[in-house]
Amino acid sequence: QVSPGLRTPRLPVWLCSVSGRHSVLFGTDSRLLSDWKSERIFHLYFCSGQQEQTRTAHLTIDTHSHHWEEAQREGSCSPGKRRPALEMAIRTKWAGATISWNGTDPFF
């Protein structure tokens, strides 16, 4: 039998399989589970457990940004607009969200 704490987590946690690798995407704000208004700008953390990831990636998700704002931050040297698989996975829940990696190099 599964404990109630495992069936209903107190913090948002997603187990991911991105590019064939298992990882964890989680937040530290419990309001993400119950208050849709908190989904405007929020933080998620990503841990792949892979040797090449030396620290947990801190991501800022903005669900109400505009596509031209993201284009200005990226600059003109983004050939083909290739997106990291993790960003595409996050956008399955929050379509059109802008994702900031806060100084961490995005993983492809």
TrEMBL record:
Its EC number is 3.4.19.12. Signal peptide: none annotated. One of its GO terms (biological process) is proteolysis. The keyword Repeat does not apply. One of its GO terms (molecular function) is K48-linked deubiquitinase activity. It catalyses: Thiol-dependent hydrolysis of ester, thioester, amide, peptide and isopeptide bonds formed by the C-terminal Gly of ubiquitin (a 76-residue protein attached to proteins as an intracellular targeting signal). InterPro entries: MINDY-3/4_CD, MINY3/4. It comes from the Eukaryota. Keywords: Hydrolase, Protease, Thiol protease, Ubl conjugation pathway. Residues 5-103 form the Deubiquitinating enzyme MINDY-3/4 conserved domain. Hydrolase that can remove 'Lys-48'-linked conjugated ubiquitin from proteins. Belongs to the MINDY deubiquitinase family. FAM188 subfamily. This is Ubiquitin carboxyl-terminal hydrolase MINDY. It comes from Peucedramus taeniatus. The lineage of its organism: Eukaryota, Metazoa, Chordata, Craniata, Vertebrata.
